[in-house]
Amino acid sequence: AQKVTQTQTSISVVEKTTVTMDCVYETRDSSYFLFWYKQTASGEIVFLIRQDSYKKENATVGHYSLNFQKPKSSIGLIITATQIEDSAVYFCAMRPNMGYKLTFGTGTSLLVDP
Amino acid sequence: GALVYQYPRRTICKSGTSMRMECQAVGFQATSVAWYRQSPQKTFELIALSTVNSAIKYEQNFTQEKFPISHPNLSFSSMTVLNAYLEDRGLYLCGARDLRTSGNTLYFGEGSRLIVV
């Protein structure tokens, strides 16, 4: 069974700074996908970025990037130049390559202050 | 880009009544649709996975009798919560992906919030 752990319950940063959110996972699968989503105040779940376990390069999309440390089963999310609109709850999730179930972490609430 | 629309966004229903929610994929073909429930405590539970031309697979603690799902084509799915009670409240999320193009990312809609009174 997979398990995803986000130990940071909430983070508060000042606008335009960089923030890192932690996520560790447990799996017996050799191939898997790791995702970060954010949930807005309205409840909408927005896909942000994905890391395929077989890729060594850290994924980057816009001002989101990942710090993938496979030996540590860790997939941190880095948001650079944060904006007030980045305030949301961020969920880390994983899915085995041959499976269908997406397992979510418990979320990290990010507040970006002006 | 891939978009998933869900409606209604919010429903208040009396205990024992039912709520139907719909999920529409735009810009891609939803060969696989997963229905999740997010509890008031923010944890996610997978209810069922529906793949076109395959039987719907329900997770433990969820049944077709309680959560019937329809997935008639590659852009639409619906789920009903029958005889809703307090323990059924939460945010119901539809996630869709296109298996045929090796779509490994699940795209979610805005969710349908069920409030039971």
Written overview of the protein:
The complex is a heterodimer of chains A (114) and B (117). With 114 residues, chain A is an all-beta fold. Chain A is 0% helix and 54% strand. Chain A has strands at 3-5, 10-14, 19-21, 24-26, 32-39, 45-52, 60-61, 64-69, 74-79, 88-96, 103-104, 108-113. Chain B contains no helices and 11 strands. Chain B is globular, with a radius of gyration of 13 Å. The termini of chain B are far apart.
Concise structural overview:
With 114 residues, chain A is an all-beta fold.
Question: What distinguishing features does this structure have?
Answer:
heterodimer; A: 114 residues; mainly beta; 4-stranded antiparallel β-sheet; 12 strands; globular; B: 117 residues; 7-stranded mixed β-sheet
Backbone structural class of chain A = mainly beta
String of helices and strands of chain A: EEEEEEEEEEEE
Principal-axes shape call of chain B: globular
What is the end-to-end distance of chain A? 41 Å
Topology:
The complex is a heterodimer of chains A (114) and B (117).
Chain A: E1 3-5, E2 10-14, E3 19-21, E4 24-26, E5 32-39, E6 45-52, E7 60-61, E8 64-69, E9 74-79, E10 88-96, E11 103-104, E12 108-113
Parallel strand pairs in A: 2-12
Antiparallel strand pairs in A: 1-4, 3-9, 5-6, 5-10, 7-8, 8-9, 10-11, 10-12
Chain B: E1 3-7, E2 10-13, E3 19-26, E4 32-38, E5 44-51, E6 57-58, E7 69-73, E8 76-81, E9 90-97, E10 107-108, E11 112-116
Parallel strand pairs in B: 2-11
Antiparallel strand pairs in B: 1-3, 3-8, 4-5, 4-9, 5-6, 7-8, 9-10, 9-11
